[in-house]
User: Fold these one by one.
Assistant:
Number 1:
Amino acid sequence: MEPRSTPARRMPVNVRDVVVHDPFWAPRQEQLRARTLDAQYEQLVATGRLGALALTWTPESDEPKPHPFWESDIAKWLEAASYVLGTHPDPALEAKVDGVIAALAGAQREDGYLNVYFTVVAPGQRFTDLRDAHELYSAGHLIEAGVAHYSSTGRTTLLDVVTRLADLLCDEFGPGGAHHGGYCGHEEVELALVRLYRATGERRYLDLSLTFVDARGTEPHYFDLEQGRRGTPGFFGEMFPQREHRRREFFEYNQSHAPVREQTEAVGHAVRAMYLYCAMADLAAETGDEGLRAACERLWTHLTTRRMYVTGGIGDSRHNEGFTRDHALPNETAYAETCAAIGLVFWARRMASLTGHAAYIEVLERALHNGVIAGVSADGQRFFYENPLASDGTVERADWFDCACCPPNLARLEASLGSYIYATAADAIAVDLFIGSTVTTDVAGSRVVLRQDTSGPSGDRVDLTVAAAAPATWSLLVRAPSWSRSVAVRVNGEVPDGGGAVDENGYVVLRREWADGDTVEVAFDVDVRRVHASTLVAADAGRVALARGPFVYCVEGVDVDVPAHAVLLGEANPQPGATPSGVVPDLTGPAWGESRGQADQDSLYFPERAARAELPLTAVPYYSWNNRGRSTMAVWLREA
């Protein structure tokens, strides 16, 4: 089976066709391969997830009781490991992957069904609780893992398993199926089916994805129908009884409050929303559906102009793990789940492919370098589920979670980073992210190797070198990032025709006959800048955030003599200093701190302002906070 091309305007390259050698990202990927994947595998073993695939659990056994969506954690780990194997052969890791695939194959039923919970805990109840039980969500992650394993290794051992599962879903949920009209309470299978279609060319997988998307939010509401047939609360009905008492209100939680083409606001559970919007963008690209594209563009505008944190985090509330109202962006209580920022990266990439516009990559870059990678510690062993933008000193990362969606999700994104750096069309290569790497791809009928050298994602220069067997005419598109005041381009040392102007899509377009050894030098003007929030964001009133390149910065109490929220910036911006967290510099300079000393401990309110004293400021990249123990932290700072 050969992956098919798609009508999307530009498509990412395969992970295996990109080698990352960036001074910032390459060490992170190596740590993922050498440490993080092993640690996550051990957690899958220790918590019973992998052992459950043996199907030996009984109510009388001492084994951990399987959970309905344990397979999703296994699948995301498999997907991450598969990407790693595609670029870095590792016999020990490959053996683990093969063992997990064999266990999944052994747990699969004759008809293709694969879910441990509904095989040994609740047999006979499959597909009766789509709202809560995550069967299709888990199936989607298994399908994604199968596609990743196939595209990275060329082997079909896992792909064979997941195509049998997908075939069952087509039979059950397609026209004439026993569960036709149903859809999952946690979106994921929709985007996975599009990936499977692209890998295999089987049209019915694309059709089923569209069936799921079209059914969502229609009346009579499927979740009401299945509740009536079942006669009992859903899986989470006892844990969250308000879902049963206010059922209509909670349709927004899983984006089933209206048909998707009529939706205008990003609502509900943030991760679910992102995965739905990913599928909508994919389907718009594959089918040319203008209604889906228009809905995606409306939802994107609403999210990024009213409900997104400066870090690219999304979802302000722990109550629903998602959105509440416009401009509600509290900092200390921000939920900003790691998976939600990852989902935003996924959706942004799809919107960029659909439209060819760099604005989507801007958001992707912001989320990736801040809201996503803050989710893992410097040693790759501890994780954030939530990512607040301020802390009183009680927040810290954890080794693992009962609901462990974030760690393997982060792993699969970091492992697949190469597919986000470049995008290709028939006669064009786009450089979307400034990450040192080498891509090998076909363009204009010619095999081209493009090497990108940088000093890191916030560096002020990128050097591109072309290697090609024969000259060919094609376009090289270089994104003009908003964090640089200017972009200067030279081709083989000369200013190109047109002076390197930026086009309407946000790229410098260099179209010419490219030959072996051609070079492009891109120079950025990278300064420390202050970011001001909309006056409608009450939490950020009178405050600014510091940023340089794609990175947002924060202040930690460990670096100052006052709580982080009591720091005030001076008139001059702090400047790049030391690089203790790697190639991304800290920002240092004079600032002010407010304190009343012991009086602040003895009383709450005072007639006069607190005394201010000058102090040396160190601001660290947001992604690196909480690597030196517990400490207060603040992204948004007052000005003196």
Note: Residues 1-8 have pLDDT under 50 and may be disordered.
Number 2:
Amino acid sequence: MTIEEITAYILSNFKKVNITEASGDLFFMYDQEKMMPFATIVTSDNDFDSISQLNREGFFRLNIGIDKTLFVSSFEGIALKKGIGAYVASCIDFTAENIVMPHPFYGSMYWLCIVNPDKDSLPGLKSYLDVAYDLAVKRYKG
């Protein structure tokens, strides 16, 4: 899948989505730009996060914020960890393509990620995006 295909899917399947771009990265938010994103697409390394080695040509990482229940069921056998960067020192290869895994830095907040997802990953990603979007709507509506 391409960044454009993922973006088109999100925009055509979820209402009131705003996209903010910063340094080539995309932040998908429900309704207002000042809200927390429910999904992001990161396209390059930065000083804080280079663990997925996204500076390789054509690489990007889709990040999706889900709920605890789905996170736990998606990663059975991987212990829940606390704190930003909690999964960085785990035995997960965050450079691997097309594998859903806990986000290296925000996994403790129930974010997952996938580097360069292919079209076969879309059905599974749809369910994650559904949950993430529903959470964003609930947060917005209070």
Note: Residues 3-141 form a domain with the Aspartate Aminotransferase, domain 1 fold (CATH 3.90.1150).
